[in-house]
C-alpha cells in the first residue's frame, strides 16, 4: 500500500505533466493559428490592397461623376434658359418680321403717295402755266405761285376801294378767265381713271387731280371808312370773293357742273379779311396793295390708298366759305355784323 503522502505527490506530478502537455499543445495550436493567419493575410493582403485601391478609385470616380452630374445639371439649366431665350427671341423675331413687313407696306404706300403727290404738283403747275399763258394772250397779267397752287388777281383790277361790286375791268378779266377755265378745267375734274366729260384736250387729261378750287378774298389791315357798305374787312373780303365766284360761274355755267373725284362741287369761296397777309409789315401803301388780292387756290386731291381716294375736305381754314346757291350780297349793303376793331383808318381794302 502506497502511503497517502506518496499518492498526493504522484498526483501533483501528474497534474503538472498534464498542464505542461496542455500548455505545449496550446502553444502549438497558437503557433499553427498564427501560421495559418499569416498565410491567410499573405494571401488576402494583395486583394485587400487592390480592394482599397479600387475603393479609392471608385470614390474618386464617384466624385468625378458627381461633379460631371452637377456640370450636366448646370448645362441643362443653361440650355433651358437659352431655349426660353430662343423662344422669346423667335417670338420677337416673328413680331419684328411682321413690323418689318408693315413698314415695307407703309414705305411702298408712302413712296407711291409721294410720287403721286409730286406728279400731281407737276400737273397743277402745268395747269397754272397754261392758264397764265392763255390770259397773257388776252393781255391780262396775274401772278402764279406754283408751289402753293395759286393764281392771283390784283385787287385793283377787280374792285374799287372799299367796294365789293366788280369794276368793268374786273368783269372783262373774269370773262376771259371763265372762258379759259371752261376750256381747260374739265380735263382735271371727275374721277381718276375715267374719261373726264367735257375735256377738249384728251392728250392732256388728268382727271381727279383737283379736290377744290377756292376763290379767296384778302384785304389790308386798315379800318373801313364810315360810308362803306360792309362792317369790316372780313365781310368785305367775303363779299368780294363771292362777287368773283358768282360772276365766274355765271360767265361760264359749265364750271358749276364740274365735280371732283368724290362727286363734290369743284368750286368754293372764302374770305380772310386781313388775317392772311402776304406782307406782314403793312406800314407802306405798296405793302398794303400786295395784301389786297383775290387768290384762286387749287387744293390737290389726296393720293389714292388701296384703290380708294382720300378726299381732302379743306374749305379754306378759318375763312368764310360758300358754294353754289348762296345768295348774293345786296348792293345797298348786308345786314349788320358785330364790329371788330382794326388798324388805324386809311385807304381801305
Short description:
The protein is an alpha+beta fold and 349 residues long. The chain has a domain at 112-345: OmpA-like domain (60s Ribosomal Protein L30, Chain: A), CATH 3.30.1330.
Structure description:
The protein is an alpha+beta fold. Helix content is 52%, strand content 12%. The protein has a domain of 234 residues: OmpA-like domain (60s Ribosomal Protein L30, Chain: A), CATH 3.30.1330.60. It is built from five helices and ten strands; from the N terminus they run H-E-E-H-H-E-E-H-E-H-E-E-E-E-E. The strands form three sheets. A six-stranded mixed β-sheet has the order 1-2-6-3-5-9. Strand 1 and strand 2 form a beta hairpin.
Major sheet summary line: 6 strands, mixed
Question: If strands are numbered along the chain, what order do they take across the biggest sheet?
Answer: 1-2-6-3-5-9
**Strand residue content:** 5-15%
Instruction: Tell me, briefly, the overall form.
Output: rod-shaped
CATH architectural group of the domain at 112-345: 2-Layer Sandwich
Rg calc: 57 Å
Instruction: Provide a count of the helices.
Output: 5
DSSP E strands, number: 10
For this entry, give a set of tags:
six-stranded mixed sheet; 349 residues; rod-shaped; 5 helices; alpha+beta; two-stranded parallel ribbon
List the helices and strands and how they pair.
Blueprint: H1 4-137, E1 143-145, E2 150-154, H2 155-158, H3 168-184, E3 210-218, E4 222-223, H4 233-251, E5 267-271, H5 285-291, E6 293-300, E7 304-305, E8 308-309, E9 320-322, E10 343-345
Amino acid at each position: 500500500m502506497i502511503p497517502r503522502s506518496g499518492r498526493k505527490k504522484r498526483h501533483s506530478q501528474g497534474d503538472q505533466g498534464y498542464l505542461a502537455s496542455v500548455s505545449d499543445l496550446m502553444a502549438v495550436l497558437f503557433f499553427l493559428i498564427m501560421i495559418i493567419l499569416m498565410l491567410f493575410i499573405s494571401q488576402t493582403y494583395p486583394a485587400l490592397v487592390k480592394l482599397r485601391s479600387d475603393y479609392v478609385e471608385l470614390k474618386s470616380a464617384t466624385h468625378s461623376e458627381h461633379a460631371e452630374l452637377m456640370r450636366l445639371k448646370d448645362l441643362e439649366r443653361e440650355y433651358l434658359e437659352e431655349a426660353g431665350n430662343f423662344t422669346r427671341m423667335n417670338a420677337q423675331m416673328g413680331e419684328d418680321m411682321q413690323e418689318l413687313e408693315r413698314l415695307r407696306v407703309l414705305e411702298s404706300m408712302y413712296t407711291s403717295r409721294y410720287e403721286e403727290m409730286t406728279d400731281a404738283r407737276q400737273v397743277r403747275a402745268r395747269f397754272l402755266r397754261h392758264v397764265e399763258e392763255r390770259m397773257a394772250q388776252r393781255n391780262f397779267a396775274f401772278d402764279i405761285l406754283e408751289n402753293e397752287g395759286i393764281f392771283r388777281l390784283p385787287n385793283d383790277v377787280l374792285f374799287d376801294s372799299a367796294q365789293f361790286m366788280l369794276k368793268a375791268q374786273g368783269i372783262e378779266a373774269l370773262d376771259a378767265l371763265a372762258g379759259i377755265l371752261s376750256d381747260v378745267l374739265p380735263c382735271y375734274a371727275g374721277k381718276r381713271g375715267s374719261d373726264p366729260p367735257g375735256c377738249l384736250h384728251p392728250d392732256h387729261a388728268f382727271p381727279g387731280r383737283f379736290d377744290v378750287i377756292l376763290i379767296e378774298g384778302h384785304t389790308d389791315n386798315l379800318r373801313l371808312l364810315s360810308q362803306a357798305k360792309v362792317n369790316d374787312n372780313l365781310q368785305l373780303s367775303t363779299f368780294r370773293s363771292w362777287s368773283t365766284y358768282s360772276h365766274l360761274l355765271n360767265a361760264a355755267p359749265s364750271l358749276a357742273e364740274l365735280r371732283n373725284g368724290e362727286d363734290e362741287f369743284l368750286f368754293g369761296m372764302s374770305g380772310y379779311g386781313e388775317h392772311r397777309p402776304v406782307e406782314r409789315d403793312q406800314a407802306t401803301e405798296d405793302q398794303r396793295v400786295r395784301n389786297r388780292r383775290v387768290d384762286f387756290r387749287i387744293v390737290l386731291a389726296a393720293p389714292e390708298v388701296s384703290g380708294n381716294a382720300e378726299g381732302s375736305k379743306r374749305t379754306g381754314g378759318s375763312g368764310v366759305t360758300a358754294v353754289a346757291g348762296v345768295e348774293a350780297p345786296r348792293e345797298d349793303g348786308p345786314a349788320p355784323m358785330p364790329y371788330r376793331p382794326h388798324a388805324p383808318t386809311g385807304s381801305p381794302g
